[in-house]
Amino acid sequence: xxxxxxxxxxxxxxxxxxxxxxxxxxxxxxxxxxxxxxxxxxxxxxxxxxxxxxxxxxxxxxxxxxxxxxxxxxxxxxxxxxxxxxxxxxxxxxxxxxxxxxxxxxxxxxxxxxxxxxxxxxxxxxxxxxxxxxxxxxxxxxxxxxxxxxxxxxxxxxxxxxxxxxxxxxxxxxxxxxxxxxxxxxxxxxxxxxxxxxxxxxxxxxxxxxxxxxxxxxxxxxxxxxxxxxxxxxxxxxxxxxxxxxxxxxxxxxxxxxxxxxxxxxxxxxxxxxxxxxxxxxxxxxxxxxxxxxxxxxxxxxxxxxxxxxxxxxxxxxxxxxxxxxxxxxxxxxxxxxxxxxxxxxxxxxxxxxxxxxxxxxxxxxxxxxxxxxxxxxxxxxxxxxxxxxxxxxxxxxxxxxxxxxxxxxxxxxxxxxxxxxxxxxxxxxxxxxxxxxxxxxxxxxxxxxxx
Length: 452
Fold this sequence. Notes:
Blueprint lengths: L2 H26 L18 E2 L18 E2 L9 E6 L5 E9 L1 E8 L8 E5 L15 E7 L5 E7 L8 E7 L8 E5 L9 E6 L5 E6 L8 E6 L11 E2 L9 E6 L5 E6 L7 E6 L11 E2 L9 E6 L5 E6 L10 E6 L4 E7 L3 E3 L4 E9 L10 E7 L1 H4 L4 E3 L9 E8 L5 E11 L3 E14 L3 H10 L2
Helix pairs in contact: 1-3
């Protein structure tokens, strides 16, 4: 064996050892397993709502008791949260500097706390900034993060002095500027509390335009995001003789949240749902798990559909005045961890590992429950389901393993969710984005050596 051949041989072995050590470290690092050897946590977990027509809308899942979003709150009023489409930026209203202005905070992952709380920055040479000497309220951010809708009023005590504005920016790293009145929806009466839909084609808001003493929910539509909105119309099935405020359309368009202020009580959050996009929303129901004797308002939903942000002046656990709170839904199944590589190799078999927690009240039996896999299963050469090999008690965890063998280069997605009795999808979903690339000769050699 000549020196060059020996060098290449030992180089291959070195790569294999490094690969195995990294794999071992990732799987056995402190905190990844519980006492039963079940995987516990991973910052790369990306939980998203399942995109199919819902057999059991997640809107009906109950909430845990609300918690104070302490990192955002002050001893002044902190109101009307709006979470961005990716869940990493939150916008809200506060008067901690005297005037009501729009502030913001960010985070790196949806499991992290928000940091960098600050007044919405203005450009170095603003032509028309968002925050002014007037009062700015009720932010709503477009799904691409480039247009901010908000309400502005010169007299916070007079509903008729409110109008809806919007400001734009060239990228998520730029500052909002060029704030303008949304003239096609504003009238001589009051318009406020805007909410832009996920596709940017519908704008919901509250107004007393048809009756000075009655605030209702209206919607304006358009054919594309560059077009002006049409004349607004009342959303009659979501409006009442009581003030109906802070409308919020969920990302999946199946759930509609808003605030209702009954004449004999304080603000409460309501929800209306539908089972298809062609249907009207049903009769609104109070979200009793978050409503209290104190007023609740300003609902905004994380893209997973599992966390509801809102504001309230609940005194217990609060910081003074109105605070921003959040409540999580009680899903019957929760993705707990995944060990999915971000890059996988063409025509090479790869092991996928994920763990789900049985967060419901019923045990999962091996003959009735399984993991379903949808998405680009053909291109990734993935199984469409993974069976349980044992029962999983309520509160327990189960680790699923399956293999993929991609057949095409590109970026593909798998969505995983639990199935009961072959027909009923339930619980939270786990979405994994995988990039398929062709292996180099060195990587081919590593996998050849690694194969048993």
